[in-house]
Every structure is written in C-alpha cells, then in structure tokens.
Specification:
Length: about 280
C-alpha cells in the first residue's frame, strides 16, 4: 500500500460541503467516485479541514491509501479527466505512512473575499460576498487585533460544532482593501465550525459602525454565540492552505496569486499580530 497526498482546488457553490453525505452531492463523494474509477478499487479519503456548503478551497490537502501504481503526474491528469469542472487536483505526492492530512497539520489558512458596493454583481455571485453599506477598514483592523492569540471562541462557534474545546490560537489576521474589494486572511492552529463566517459577521458590524472595535473583547469574555452578529455568507470563504512539517514536502500555493486569477486584484500583505 502507498499513501498519496493530493492538493485539491474546488469551487464550492454546487456542493453541499466537503464531507460525504447520503445524497452524494459533496466534494468528497465526487472525488472518491473519480478515485474508484481511476484506481479500479474503493478508496477512502481524509482531508485537512471539512468545508461547509458553498465554501471553496484553493489548496485542500487530502490523503488516501492505495495499492494502485500510478505516476504522480497521472494522479493529477487522470483524476482531473474524471472530475467536474468545479473540482481539480493541483498536485500529488507520495508521503510516508505517518503523514495524516488532518492530524499532521500545524496550521490552517482561510481567506475571505468581500465586495462593498451599492449594487450586487451577478458575475461575482457565489465566489465573492457582498455588502452594500460602507465599511471602515481601520475599525475592522482594530477589532481584528483583539482576536490574535489564544482565546475561547465560544461566541463564534456553531451550535452544531463538535470540537472538544472552543479554545483556538489565532496567529494572525490580514485585512486589506483595494477599491470596492476587501480581503480578509485568517491563520490559526485550527478553526471551529462556522467560526470564520461568524467572525466575519462581527467584523462587518464593526466596519459599518454598528458596534465599536472593543465589542470583540466583550463577546470573547461572554462566550455566548447569541450575543454576536449573524453568521455571514459562505460564498466569499476559501480554504487557502494548510501548514505541515517540512519533512513531508507538502506544496503550498500563494492565495494572493490565486485570488488575482479570480478578481484581477493585487493585494499587498498587511499583518495584524500580537506577540
């Protein structure tokens, strides 16, 4: 048996998230169907982070065990010939048995792309979120600063979240603006169910002046999801990448370059960090 790691990119709008469901309309279901045809045997996959309905991935990392002998290039081209246009394998690596797409991960990165304009764009529907009220970048950056570090994120977890602990370590947050577009980048050791969409709802409230930046501190202290803003749209959210120990040689992709392909905008990194 060989262990193969794959980097998978997908547009999440047509799918009910990553995780397999009885109806079969998920990214995992479609990928495993393609793998079954490609290897001529049943294949189970494990991913780095389960994305929700409508959420996209730029570099989802998946591993599988198989007896099939294929070149690494065949894993990419052969699978892509069997996958729909909204899903594509970007790279393949043979990895040691102690590699695990989920448990070997040391950090995860998500980006959120948002457009602020008085009129919605049908051309960006499903790929970029939209608000019509003006946003104050400085207020959102000030609020984001309070989120960096280790916190109990109970106020930002879904009621369906199955994580054993609500404590997570947010290593940094980037928030940038170019014209009508805002790009948010979140990096942490791991995320809770709906955590980023709930954080986005809160940051947008603050950016619109509906709450002050230090509202974040109140919500973190209260640990009550009911006190925060509503969960925001899934369409602007992308799993950008996953960090692994260097010995596994897992490829990374620059989310800024990939989002340039989508929006045609160049964003420069600006970091909100706490030591």
């Amino acid at each position: 048996m060989r262990r193969i790691a794959l980097g998978v990119c997908y547009e999440g709008t047509p799918w009910l998230g990553w995780q397999s469901q009885a109806g079969g309309n998920t990214v995992q279901d479609v990928l495993e169907q393609a793998l079954r045809r490609f290897t001529a045997q049943p294949v189970s996959t494990i991913c780095a982070g389960r994305t929700d309905t409508g959420v996209h991935a730029l570099n989802q990392v998946v591993h599988l065990d198989t007896a099939a002998e294929r070149s690494l290039e065949s894993w990419v081209r052969g699978l892509n010939a069997l996958l729909p246009n909204s899903i594509a394998v970007q790279w393949a690596r043979e990895v040691p048995d102690d590699f695990h797409a989920r448990f070997s991960a040391q950090g995860r990165h998500y980006v959120y792309l948002l457009r602020q304009h008085r009129v919605r764009s049908p051309l960006l529907h499903g790929r970029v979120a939209w608000v019509f009220r003006p946003l104050d970048l400085a207020l959102m950056r000030e609020a984001a600063h309070h989120l960096v570090g280790e916190h109990d994120f109970s106020a930002f977890r879904s009621s369906q979240c199955q994580a054993a602990s609500p404590v997570r370590t947010m290593s940094h947050i980037h928030i940038e603006q170019q014209g009508d577009f805002f790009l948010f980048r979140f990096s942490a050791n791991a995320f809770l169910h709906h955590m980023i969409r709930n954080l986005m709802g809160m940051l947008i409230y603050i950016g619109q002046g509906r709450q002050p930046p230090d509202w974040v501190l109140h919500l973190l202290a209260q640990r009550d999801r009911r006190l925060s803003a509503p969960t925001f749209d899934a369409s602007g959210l992308y799993l950008a990448g996953v960090d692994y120990p260097q010995q596994f040689d897992i490829p990374t992709r620059n989310p800024y370059d990939l989002l340039y392909e989508l929006s045609g905008l160049r964003f420069a990194e600006t970091v909100s960090e706490k030591s």
